[in-house]
Amino acid sequence: MQSTRLFVLISCLFCTALTELHAQPFPSKLIRIITSEAGAGADLFSRYIAQGIAGPLGQPVIVDNRGGNFVIQARELMAAPPDGHTLIFGTATMWVQALFEKVPYDPVADFAPVAMAARAPNVLVIHPSLPVKNVAELIALAKAKPGLLNYASGISGSSVHIAGELFKAMAGVNIVRIPYKGMGPALVSIMGGETELMFSSAVGVPPLIKAGRLKALAVTSVERFPLMPDLPTVAQTVPGYESGLVLGLMAPGKTPTAVIRRLNEEVVRVLKTPAARERFLAEGVEVVGSTPEEYFAARKADMERVEKVIVTSGLRNTN
């Protein structure tokens, strides 16, 4: 009996030693950040963060652009080991899309929040040729011509899509949605006159407005946006209206807490610098740099709010 116990003890000690021998400190290899198409807001943030954390972590950090539906990006993340070396940087589309349709992931269990990086309102922009000066005139025109106006949108569940459909429901107008594969193509369509209006994210839009290629009517936040203080809010015309963009970094769901903490520390360090705040405010977003817990709570609250919008407005399975 004693010899058996001794054998079990030695075996346990051997296994523990072997595990410690093969355990590698994080990070031990190249880190990959999966994100949206090149040039989009998530891509810009991903590259800024990648450059900022590579040195302190002692490993290369690359950005892997995957355009189109978020499901494509999610599949890449779920196929990777949950060790912190593969991350995803995206928007609220990852959890909102699951409220619209069946997706091959659990929006809560399969993604471990690292940090909310930034947030921004959407901006209601129109093609300069559209004969309206404010939100009230846009609503009047839409009601006078039901089904004749259209708006450019990204994929189903994106902040641009939710903003547009929420506006239609709350303002009582019939505006046709024209979906595109991403923000870039949607913006090109409205600047080219193919579409007439858009609830664009504020990322990268200010220069286009200043250049006269787009005309801004309002922002979708509850209060006026510091970068565009002269613009009224949609809520001033449509009481209770609110929509916006959330950008954040996530890891696979079973990533160790210690790895999440290390990543959060480095990401927040980069985002909290004055240079980062100035850089991204100029792009139309407010830097956040949250804890994992704060990001999780914000995600949960947003899912509850958006689901109510989807149910009450009949948006489920919108194509």
Keywords:
single chain, 319 residues, alpha/beta, D-Maltodextrin-Binding Protein, domain 2, 10-stranded mixed β-sheet, 11 helices, 43% helix
Describe the overall structure.
The chain has 319 residues and is α/β, with parallel strands linked by helices. The chain has two domains: 28-119 and 246-313, 3-Layer(aba) Sandwich (D-Maltodextrin-Binding Protein, domain 2); 121-244, Periplasmic binding protein-like II (D-Maltodextrin-Binding Protein, domain 2). 43% of the residues lie in helices and 19% in strands. The chain is built from eleven helices and ten strands. Strands 1, 2, 3, 4, 5, 6, 7, 8, 9 and 10 form a ten-stranded mixed sheet that branches. The radius of gyration is 23 Å and the shape is globular. The relative contact order is 0.18.
Outline of the structure:
This protein has 319 residues and is an alpha/beta fold.
Total helices: the number is 11
Q: What profile does the largest beta sheet have? A: 10 strands, mixed
- The N- to C-terminal Cα distance equals 69 Å
CATH domain class name of the largest domain: Alpha Beta
Uncertain ranges: 6-10, 12-22
SSE blueprint and pairings:
Blueprint: H1 2-22, E1 31-35, H2 41-57, E2 61-65, H3 70-78, E3 86-91, H4 93-100, E4 111-126, H5 135-144, E5 150-153, H6 159-171, E6 176-179, H7 183-191, E7 197-201, H8 206-210, E8 215-219, E9 244-252, H9 257-271, H10 274-281, E10 286-287, H11 292-313
Parallel strand pairs: 1-2, 1-3, 5-6, 5-7
Antiparallel strand pairs: 3-9, 4-7, 4-8, 4-9, 4-10
Helix pairs in contact: 2-9, 4-11
